[in-house]
Structures are given as structure tokens and as C-alpha cells.
Batch of 2 targets.
Target 1
Amino acid sequence: MDSSQPFEHVHADMVTTKASTTNQSETPCIRTRSLGLTIRGLTLLNDISIQVTTPGITMILGPNGAGKSLLIKCLHGLITPTRGRFEIGLHQGVDLIPQAMVFQKPVLLRRSVIDNLQFSDRHSHQREALELALEAVRLLEKKDQPATQLSGGEQQRLSLARALITQPKLLFLDEPTASLDPASVLIIEQLINQASHEGVKSVFISHDIGQAKRLASDVIFLNRGQVTEHTDAATFFTNPQSREAKAYLNGEIVL
Amino acid sequence: MLDSAFLDAFRLIATVNADLYEILWLSVQVSITALLVSVVLGFPLGTTLAISDFRGKNLCTTVLNALMGLPPVVVGLLVYLALSRSGPFGVLELLYTPTAMVIAQVVLITPIIAALTYQVIDDLHQEYRELFLSLDIHLAKAIIAYLWDARYSLITTVLAGFGRAISEVGAVMIVGGNIDHLTRVMTTAIALETSKGELAIALALGVVLLTLALLVNGLVTAVRTRARRYGYN
């Protein structure tokens, strides 16, 4: 497709298209072609062309304002890109991929912890299953408490449980552990790793390089709305190619 | 004279004066009926406006907010013209009936309920919009969630509407006519009895009206306190 062509505007469900059948894996595949986003004359994402076909956790790294959150919001269908196109699909012929997203700032309904979980449950799980999901995020004993009264870490754990109860194939995580206590970080990382082992593809934004090293299978580095590097995690952390990624990993200020 | 008027007023209340309680009962009936109709109209209107995006939305919200300040006598006049014999709804013969008073109050209160609902739901929509999109929540479920999660604020809105309805005088005076045993409510009775110099009845009704206003405000405070306690404000 000619990258200069205007974006084919389609709903999030509709952009989820069947991908190539050459790869027989069940891992969701994300392809973007010259994806761009301009708002009020400001180019926030520019010419993003990536192909994510590996299982596991794809980490998106980059300085603040690089466009990381905007990129996953575009991929999740919350924002419509102004240029380019993207495809998300399974290789073995499932057109629609259940997706979920965990936001940086937890958004919880003004009701109890278990009612928050039940609200997002598309599969009408039994109460016992919901309680098991709460047990997994160590919130079972708080199931009847107002969700808005939980601590920051607990709120984010509930957000993750709420995303996972929808049984996604693709999970977007926008800095889910930012400013959380180590215990909450550990629980969240364990759950994401477990989901990954069960076949859930995760796209994870983080500023924590240690966490990226622990979790990532591949890394997309974004700077000023552009992808400067997309490589497997081992290569990225030992031998980054772009000047910006090198500077970022060295703890220098990337402008 | 004033002392005896106060004493007589409290005597009327304490002895459960039939005329006084008839007026009180009609006032409450008219206001609650108008309130229910206004809630049925105002909740969906405010919610729809808050969660939909269309050209002219700002104009709609501006008009709705402006309608909150509708002068009651003007509303009374317009409803009077609509219900009078030569008006478009004259054939219904509703003028000078409690139904006409309900209609006038509905016209007055619905914009208040709708505008306050809009403000409450709009705030919630800004917070929940991306989450609902992400969870692929369909419209009907989203609307129910908005109304439920805004329940404490909406209760306050309903109580504000009731306060406005029960204390309104201009519109109900024009369309109800303040007819004894038929359309006389507390506010119109107070105006009439004061003009006649019957201060005892006017004061008794005033005390009851103030008590109602205090009760409504007490309920608003209780609802807000409860909402704060649960972190739902």
C-alpha cells in the first residue's frame, strides 16, 4: 500500500484482520504500515511500520512524549490513526482477536471490587471463578470493599484481573507498574508472565529497564513518534543500534 | 399580633388542621408527580447529551443550561396559553387543574434535572470512555453503568429538583388558579393568606415549607456524606 494514501478509517474490530497463513503459530500478529497520527497540526506518531509476530511480551521503551501510549491506543482502537494502516490477527484463521488493555492510571467503577470484575466479564463466569481471579491478584479478602478505596497497587492489580477475565489473546499494558510497591510489581509481572505462557500476547510499555530485561522477548524503541529500533530483547540490551536507544539505556537524557 | 399569629400557626400544625394538611398533601402530590416525570425525561436527555458527540452539542448544552433559569411566571404564561380554551391543548380542559400545575412544574424542573444529569454523567464519561471502549461495552450497558455509578450525585439532583418544585409559586399560581380544595398549594396559599392578612395560616404553611426544605437539604448532606465515605463522590 502506498504510504502516502490516507488511512482507511475502520473500527477497532474491523482492523483486526486475518493475517498471512504462512506462519502456523497461534500468536497474534501485529503489522503496521506507515502508521501516523497528527492532532491539530502536531505529528505525534510518524511513519510507524512494525511487524510483531513473536509470542511473549513485546516491550515498548522510549522517553516521555515518544508516543508509546498513543501507539498502543491506536492498536487497541481507542484512537483512530490519521495515516497508514494496521492489521491484527491470528495466523490460523480467527478474524477477531479478543483484546484488553490495562491503563497507566487505573479506572475503576464506583462499586465493589468483585462487581468491577463482574462488569467486564463477557463470559458470565460463576462467582467462584471471579473469586479465583481475585485470589490470583491477592484481592479476595477485599472483594466486597469499594474498589475506589483500594491502594494504588491494589487498584492496578484489580485492573489487570479485569483485563484477564475477558480472556484476551492480546493484552496491552500501559505502564501498569508505574509508581507501585515492589509486591504489587511482582504480582503483576507474575500474572503477565503466566498469561504469556498460556498464549496471551502482551504489548507492554515501561520505563523500568530492569523490568524490561526481565520480561521482554522483543523491544520496540520509540523516540519523537518514530520507531528507531525493533529487535529481540537480547540484542537490544547488549547491542542497541540506534543512537537514541544507546543513550536511553545509558541513562542519558534523550531529546 | 405577630406573637399570636405564631401561636395560632403552631396550633394549626399541632392540631392537624384539615385545610392545612389538604394543601400540604396536594403540594407534595403535584411536586412529586412533576419530579417523577422530569426524572423520566431529564435522566435520558442529560445522559444522551453527555455521552454522544455531534455537531451543535455545545449549543444544546448552552440552551439546556439557560433553560435552568427559566422565569416561573413566563413558564406559567406559556403553559396557560397552551392549555387555555383557544390554545392548542384547550380541548383537554386541563387549565386550573392539578395536572396543569404538574405540566408547568415539569417544564420548569426538567431542564434542571437534565442539565445537572449532563454535568454529572459528562464527568463520569470523561473518566470511563476509554475503559468502556476497551471492554467493548455496548451502549445500553454503558448508560446503565453511568446512571448507577452516578447514583449519589443523581439523588442530589433529584432532591434539588424537588426543592425547586415544592417552593415554586409563579407558574402554579397562573395555571392552577389557587382554587380552594382543588389547586391550592402551599406557596400559592401563603401568598393569598398573607395578602388577606391571615398570618396564622400563612405562617403555618411557611413553617411546614421550611421544614420540608430543611429535610431535603438534610437528605442531600446525608447522601453526600455517604458517597464520600465510600469514595464514590
Target 2
Amino acid sequence: MGVLNGIKVLDFGQFVAGPLTGMLLADQGADVVKVDPPGGPSWDTPANATWNRGKRSIALDLKDTADLERAQALIASADVLLENFRPGVMDRLGLGAKAATTANPRLVYCSIPGFASDDPRSGIPAWEGVVAAAATTYHGPGPILAENERMPVYTAIPIASSYAAFQSAVSIAIALLVRERDGVGQRIEVPMFDGMFAAIGGQRIHNPHTPLPAIGGTWLGQFECKDGRWVMFGGSGNTNFREFVEAAGITSWDKEGLTDRERLAHDPELAAEQGRRIVELFKTRTARQWEDDIATAGSECAVCRTSGRMARPFPRP
Amino acid sequence: MVIEVHDPKLGKMLQPGINPRLSGTPGAVRSPAPALDQHRTEVLSETKASSPLPPVEEVEATLRSALDGVRVLDLCIILAGPTCGRTLAEFGADVVKIDDPNRSPIVRHNTVNRGKRSILLDLKKKEGRDLFWRLLEGADVVVQNNRKGRVDDLGLGYEEVRKRKPDIIYASMNAYGHLGPWAERPGHEQFAQATTGMQRRFGGDGQPQAQPHPINDYGTGLLGAYGVALALLHRKRTGEGQHVDGALAYTAMTLQSAIVQDYEGKVWDEPRGQDTLGSGPLHRAYKAADGWLFIGARKSDLVKLSGVAGLEGAEELKGENLERILEQWFLKDAVDLWVGRLNAAGIGAHRVVMGWRDVMDDPWVQSHGLSITRDHEGWGPITTTGPAPRMSRTPVQPGRVAPKPGSDAHEILAGMGMADKLDGLVETGVVRLDGIMAGGD
């Protein structure tokens, strides 16, 4: 069973953020009814097989009076409503947050627009890429180039939509908890743009932090191995560095100072030599060997896999 | 992490698994995705059976925050775990952050530990653990993200904790989850990216590359908070506590939910590499005279696009040709001019913002509490991000600024009637009052 067994969710979600939120609720037991237009979801993608799993389906033409009344009847007996239309769309249909929570005071009504209802950009069609571009998601590689010389880099991961979905799921679960206490639901809005700030996090903006201790040398990053595959390796800055040195068989580097990270931080020549050596070192074993050897020793190393290999080596529940 | 589903359209397929995983109420994928309108009759019949509640006037915001009275002990390090506690604090929980008095600095402390109280407590010492058990007496939730086994070694794992407090909600987050042969492996953000395909996709044919933003860290903290909220709901109804299992690699799969389902005949054709600008001619970045803009539109918008001054004739073009011509046309004018014209025509478009400072200094962002600049003890003004969800009755709060590490020890002990013990605990090194710094990236 799931925590949300018996919770009735009406999921008007389209594209990513709404349906993904609905999936997070359905996976935990909620009875999610997906409401789509008569022609089907606005985006016909194989990902719908994931996002709509565990849901039930009804097609309603919200421009048709009879179907609109059906929607209102469904809302009257729902616990949660999800929608990610542009601000104003549900209001114009008479299904907006205020109307719905007045008709059904126990309803938790969650809107997930691209830009907030009071954002000057609320009227823009807020595709994932448009919101993500506004929220620095495609900022490209580091501060190496001047702003006007930098190229953006697109990512296929819908970060803004997903972060809005994650925060919507938290907010809905907490609103249901509050409803147990207070007896009434509430209105929630989690704009995708606003939700991106959780992903931006701390980036040293007006933030004169203490720097982390200087770590010299190259001990973090992707390295090409004997078989041409790459590993992610990160034995620095953590407590597992000695485990790596031993598992990699480079204790002989100690007497040359090549594993003395503090000294490497102040000796550019030595650091350059260590950088060359470690690139060569990784070419002496296959990626899988490195992964096994380092992990067995308790340090951090993993083969850079494709998503197509996602099922391996992890266990399936 | 991955589950097998028999989809009526796609056949046997793999999908991202259930995230987070709750031990007592594990949830399930009860059925594959439905066919359109499959449940019309039964869904509509259920509405007739139920009688709607009488409408009431809008209820004003409550004075009590959502998680008022919920007490959290936060043993987390780095980013993912602390984000879980911070999120709970934003909804009003009282979160006591317990940090190691021998580990300095605390990574991104001011960002991930705002809204909490701070104590530096040595859990490797018996007296430190004794104090933890005292704190546990008043706690509802324990959150930790140490490597699997580490808290068990200290005797602070879920099984030990539930013996003393059976209804505790105990959330654990790690790199690869708490099941199977990888459960004990250490790892951080980059390892979740490496093992689930993110780095290979982002790097393209060359060296695998890291995605911008620690999306698995912060995402795991948010989904961990979702798990804790669900567990609180379950406990409210049944009195039962449980274990919440979260992991960076679970989150990485959920974040890739648009891409990673695998089935017979699957073509892995999603945009990849360091020189990719979008997913097609109508959803990509274009260079303008003075910067970059991103446009989002569908094929059916081509007529509207053709109506934009400077883009006349776009509707006659297709695919690569459309892309090449648009590349030339957009170069001719400034970003703001294009964005204004496109938006006026009903086309989604926005400047591609490259610098964090540009969004953090934006007046709308600041006035909505998404970027907050406040004085921090010993540092002066520091800017952090703020919470996004807007709740009509129980508004979220950014909470107090991240405390100077260790500065709440007296208050925390006094709350348990143990203020007189503080000097002794400091003397023996069990509690430390200062000397641990708020760290940078």
C-alpha cells in the first residue's frame, strides 16, 4: 500500500511538470485520474507511459458545457487538483483555484505554471526551454569566456519542469497533512521559473565564504581507460583518498610528493607532473576494473554509462 | 531504481522506479498508463455517488505554519541531505542541524542550512551519542545522508533509533540507494550523473561532462522532504513511523524521466553533446546580434512566426532549412527586440541568461523572495536563494539566516533543561561552540 491510498487526484497536467507530479503521487498510492482533451495528451511521447502509469483516464472537452459540468462534479469530490496551464486558463473555464476551493473547501489545488501568475512574463508560452533559458540552466561552460562570447549548452533533461514537480509533490503532501489538522485544503502555486532557484542553490553570489582547503593536483574528473571507456573518479576532498592510493598501486608516488595534495597546491611543476601521471595511470586498467578495484577499496570511481545501461549494475526492486 | 512495466502500447519496458522509497508504505505501480478515456464510465459514476461539501467562504491564512511542532534532527553533510532539512524548515519544522566538530568548513552552509538551529556535537564520543538520545526524545524525524553503514557503526542507524522511539520517521539519503551490492559505495553528485547516463549525454562523443547545477543533490533533498511529508501523513493517521530511502541515483533517473524509458525498438535520439542548442528548429537557442535567445514553439505556430517582422516566409520552410535560415535572420537584430516581437505574436521566447548574478540581482526575483540578501554573523550581507512554493494558508518562509556553526548549543541544551551541562561538554570536546567555518563551494 501507499501513503496516499484513497486520495483522489484530478490531474489536468500536460507536457512534463503536471504529469510528473501526478506520477509521484500515483506511485505513492493516490488514485490519480488523468484528464486529457478528446484528442489525447498535448504531447504524444513514449514518456507518457511512465508519467501516466498507475493513473485512470478520462477525456473531457472543457469547451463543451456538458463536459465542463462533469469536470466541476469531479472537482467537487476530489482531494487534489493538479494543472500546469498558463495562468488564467483554468480561471477562464470557471475551474480556477479560488472557484474550485470555494466549491470544495477540502481541495488542495496545485498550479504549476511556467512563470508565476504575477510574473510579468506569465503570458509567454512557457516551454521548458524558454523557462530554463530564463533561469540560467543553459549557461554553458564555466566563466572562461566573456559573457558575450559564451555559447549556451542545451540539456535534454527538463530540469525546470522536474524541479517544479518535486516541489509540487512536497507542497501537496504537506497540504494534505495540514488538512488533517485544520480540516481545509489550500491553493498552491509552484512556478517552474521560481522552482529553478532550488537547483541554482549556492553559487558564491555576494557570498564571501571561507574557501575549502586547498587541494593540489588532479584527483577529480573523468578519465579515459585502457578499453577506451571513461570513468568518473573523485578521490580528492574526501576521507577516502588513501584507500584510492593503495588500490591504484601508487604508494610509490608518496616519496616523490605526488600524493601530497597540500604541496601540489603550491608547486605547479609537481602538479603538472601528477596531472600527466594520473592520465596515464587510468590507461593501465579497463574502466570496469577501475570501478571494481576502487569501489572495493571504499573510494569513489564509477564507469560513465549511457542511460541505456541504466538497469545495470543497480538492483531492481 | 528501475522497474519493469508491461505497457499496452510499448510492450515490456523499463521505467524509472518509485522515488522516494518508504519502508512501511512502499507504494506501487498499480497498472500501466491507461488508454485515453478508458475509465470514463467508472470515474463519472463515482461523482454521482459522492455528495459535495457545502461551499464556504475563503479561509484566511492560518497563524500556524504547516509543520509547526514537527521536530527534526538533521545529521546531514554536503548538499543533498541538508536540503531535505532546509525544505522542512521552510514549511515550519524546527530543525536542529548536528555537525561534526572536527569537520570544517561546512560546505555551502549559508545556502543549505538556513532556517535551522546549529550544534556541533561529536557523535563518535559516547557523551555525544548520549546527548543525541536525549534530543531524540523530543524528535519526530531524523534525517541523515552518510554512507550506508556509517551511522550503523555509530549505533545511530534506523534499527537502533526505532528501538528507542518506534514511531520515528528516519530518512536516509546516499549515492545509490540502500539495497543491493552498490548500497555501501560512496559517491556524490558526479557519480549519480556518471552512472545514469547524464555525463555521457552531456559530453557527447568526447569526454563525459558534468551537467550544470548539482541537480541530483538538491533534487534528492526535495524528494527526501516529499518522503518525510508522506511519512508524517501516515503517522498522523496510524501512529506508525517508518524509514524513507532516498538516493542521488534514484533522483537522476526521475530527472531523466522524459528520456530513459527503454523498450523494444527504442531509439536513443535525444539531444546530446556540448554543442547542442535545442531539441529542434522551434525549441532551441539562436544567436542574435548581441546575445542569445531561446524560442519555444510548435509546428502549428509557424504561421504566427511568419507574422513576426523579420521572419516573413518562415512558414514555407522546414527542418534543417528552417533552422539555417532562422540562424541567419536572428543575427540581424538584438535579443530584446526579437523577444518582444515574438512574445507579442504569442510565441514563447526569452533571453538565454548566462550568469547567476543576472537572475539573483533581478528586482522581480528579489521582491518575490527567491533571492534574499541578509546580514550573516561575521560576514555581512550574503545572498542566498529562497523557497518557491506559494501556499495560500500556510506560506513557506526562508527562515532565519544560517546560524554561525555551533551557536545554538546553549539554547538547545537549555530546551532540555541541560544548560548547566554545557561547560563540561565543551571541556571534553563533545560540544564545540565555534571554530567551524561556513564553507564555499
